[in-house]
Write a structure and sequence with these properties.
It contains 6 helices and 7 strands; from the N terminus they run βαβββαββαβααα. The protein is of the alpha/beta class. The protein has a 7-stranded mixed β-sheet with strand order 2-3-4-1-5-7-6, with helices on both faces. Strand 3 and strand 4 form a beta hairpin. Helix 5 runs antiparallel to helix 6.
Length: 192
């Protein structure tokens, strides 16, 4: 039987954060759930919303939005990995990335947290071997503080690009599950 995939969209809970740059990973999870017709519900053993779907002829996919704050993502992810029996190589974490321009998508396996507190907590809980879909949100303008920048919604002029980023992020996850990580990475990283 095919291995279950855990697809985690990082972000902060609550309506004040719902459309912020920091929650772009959660926005991609919502798009994946829309595509699959899956409805999230609160998991009884982990502080997270989960939705289960199945790829036709393929594996079960569990989308996850931790209900803890970003810097406490490791606990819910670790509990769900144990609950579903998922290895790190079958965990895809979607997160915002300041070091990529708005709209860029990059795939990564393993490595450090790069200053991302959600990834820092997941690595502390389960190690660095998870797969990552890094979603470019760009750098703050001028001298704006990075922490302030990521907690703001996309500007009106950026919204079309942010919407496209959600679609590209969802496409990248589907490619990883359908084609494997390396093939998906080559396609996502190929010049347009």
């Amino acid at each position: 039987m095919a291995q279950t995939w855990l697809v985690v969209g990082l972000g902060n809970p609550g309506p004040d954060y719902a459309r912020t740059r920091h929650n772009i990973g959660q926005m991609v999870v919502a798009e994946l759930e829309r595509r699959a017709g899956a409805k999230p519900k609160r998991h009884g053993r982990a502080d997270a919303l989960v939705a289960e779907s199945r790829v036709i002829g393929g594996p079960k996919v569990v989308t996850v939005f931790p209900l803890s704050y970003m810097n406490r993502s490791g606990g819910p992810v670790s509990k769900l990995m144990d609950w579903y029996g998922v290895d790190p190589e079958h965990v895809i974490v979607l997160h915002d990335e300041l070091d990529l321009p708005l709209g860029a998508v990059r795939l990564k396996q393993g490595g450090g947290h790069g200053g991302h507190n959600g990834m820092r907590d997941i690595i502390a809980a389960r190690g660095p071997d998870v797969l990552r879909v890094r979603l470019g949100i760009g750098r703050p303008p001028g001298r704006q503080d990075a922490a302030d920048f990521v907690l703001r919604p996309f500007a009106k002029a950026e919204q079309a690009e942010a919407d496209l980023l959600v679609q590209l992020g969802a496409d990248a996850v589907e490619r990883i599950i359908d084609e494997g990580f390396l093939a998906a990475q080559q396609r996502v990283h190929a010049p347009a």
